[in-house]
Write a structure and sequence with these properties.
The structure is a single chain. The protein has an 8-stranded mixed beta sheet with strand order 1-2-4-3-5-8-6-7, with helices on both faces. The protein has 474 residues and is α/β, with parallel strands linked by helices. Helix 5 runs parallel beside helix 6, helix 6 packs across helix 12 and helix 10 crosses helix 12.
């Protein structure tokens, strides 16, 4: 017997954000929550969670803390990597670091059978804020071309420039181990372990420069993608991911923060008006990306919890995801759970018996490896799963107490169908999942005024892509 709308509304109103509640409601409301897996935190996962498959588990096992440590120590050995430091010294300065990173990525590319290419993406930045004279800024980029949907692109980055206390000091030692050799080590290790594999979509591994002077390298890379019409579907920057130890000595070794903005940085006045009318502040593409990361990366294979922070970044700080956000790309920032400010943006020195400076001995290389696993789980699943449905809409041409959803069918050759997800407007995670088949519309016997809906695609291997948040269609 088909349940009444009143029964469904009651079920939805009493649901919580736990999969246990979703499971209890499944029989009554026709939902199919994800299989239970308590993951790394001991708490039930979201209803949309995906267990890691054999292919992903094999990839994660190859991530090597020893290689990550070697990368961090090598980058720190260049003395300073300040953007304004020497570019032609083979042993010290940003030029030496650039050339070493390029050689490393080139060595990984040899195992790819020609599918990974490496480039020095370079330009001259004219005098600007924190750039007193024309300065060459170079990003080192490895691109692993997808084998099925190569036009879909996913980017992971860290910045290889560093700084001392004075942001304009280009000569003092600035080892930059945590900020941000740790993030570069993540990007390089992911390039190494994926080079021999065949992702369906394209993955870009980037070490960018100019971050400490004003996000110059990332802005150049994002602008290049925008000008070329590149379909960058997601971007992650790893910036200060080297230690789980806070300035008071407390440790949180199994948590990584993920900063994800709500109101899009690129939002137009027209888009803002729609958002205000329907309440989409917590459903931006970056928030959906953050939910996806939790869905695929909080489990026993990574051993990590992803703490999503509903902010673009920390107070008075910014990262390389921001130029991508400003150009309309979904992007988010990984950062350690609590920072020790004595070991970032500090001259190397000892004061009152306390060591200052961003030195390798203050990094935890096992922790960085676990952060790399979180990134790998997200990137690999994004690259293998179908894309978020395009043009997802809620039909609003007539006022009804039901909800009609429509979307455009994806072009992936292994596309199997779609699922409609929903949650209470006050819930942070999706709580219910309804398989609807290989269709491009679905009518739910629930009021669009009372809950939030989303749509995600499923392929024949059972991988789910990110959720698309539907906008009104009159």
């Amino acid at each position: 017997m088909r349940p009444s709308r009143r029964t469904l509304l009651t079920a939805t109103a009493t649901a919580t954000a736990t999969a246990a509640t979703a499971t209890a409601a499944a029989g009554m409301a026709g939902t199919t929550p994800a299989a239970a897996d308590t993951g790394a935190t001991g708490s039930p996962p979201p209803a949309t969670a995906q267990k890691p498959g054999r292919e992903l588990r094999a990839l994660l096992r190859e991530i090597d803390p020893g290689r990550i440590e070697a990368t961090v120590r090598k980058l720190a050995s260049f003395g300073t990597r300040h953007t304004l430091s020497a570019q032609d010294d083979p042993a010290r300065g940003i030029g030496a670091a650039r050339d070493w990173i390029h050689a490393e990525l080139t060595s990984y590319a040899r195992a790819s059978g020609g599918r990974m290419t490496v480039e020095l993406q370079s330009y001259v930045q004219e005098p600007a804020s924190r750039i007193p004279e024309p300065t060459r800024i170079t990003n080192v980029i490895a691109t692993l071309r997808g084998s099925v949907t190569p036009d879909r692109v996913y980017v992971v980055s860290g910045h290889y420039d560093s700084r001392a206390t004075d942001v304009m000091d280009a000569t003092s030692d600035a080892p930059g181990a945590d900020d941000d050799a740790s993030g570069v080590a993540v990007a390089l290790e992911l390039a190494r372990v994926t080079a021999r594999r065949r992702p369906a979509s394209t993955i870009v591994f980037a070490a960018v420069a100019g971050e400490e002077q004003g996000l110059y390298g990332a802005a150049h890379m994002a602008e290049r993608y925008k000008a070329a019409g590149t379909d960058v579907r997601a971007m992650f920057t790893n910036d200060i991911v080297g230690s789980p130890k806070a300035d008071d000595g407390t440790r949180d070794p199994y948590t990584i923060r993920l900063f994800a903005e709500g109101v899009p940085s690129s939002e137009t006045p027209e888009q803002a008006a729609v958002r205000r009318s329907v309440g989409g502040e917590n459903d931006s593409p970056s928030r959906q990306l953050a939910r996806f990361v939790r869905d695929v990366a909080v489990n026993d294979a990574t051993g990590m919890n992803v703490r999503v922070i509903y902010r673009r970044d920390r107070y008075r700080r910014g990262g390389d995801h921001i130029p991508f956000l400003e150009r309309g790309y979904a992007a988010a920032r990984f950062t350690e759970p609590a920072e020790d400010f004595a070991h970032q943006h500090q001259d190397v020195r000892v004061e009152d018996g306390k060591q200052y400076g961003d030195l390798p001995e203050f990094c935890d290389f096992g922790y960085i490896a676990r952060v790399a696993k979180v990134n790998a789980a997200a990137l690999w699943t994004l690259a293998q799963a179908p894309d978020a449905p395009r043009d997802a809409r809620i039909v609003t041409s007539t006022l009804t107490n039901s909800t009609e959803l429509v979307w455009t069918r994806g072009t992936e050759p292994d596309l199997a169908g779609y699922e409609v997800v929903r949650r209470e407007t006050t819930a942070p995670e999706w709580t219910h999942v309804v398989p609807v088949g290989d269709v491009t519309s679905h009518e739910a016997d629930l009021s669009k005024d009372n809950v939030f809906f989303g749509v995600r695609a499923v392929n024949r291997a059972g991988l789910r892509g990110p959720v698309a948040y539907p906008l009104p269609q009159t």
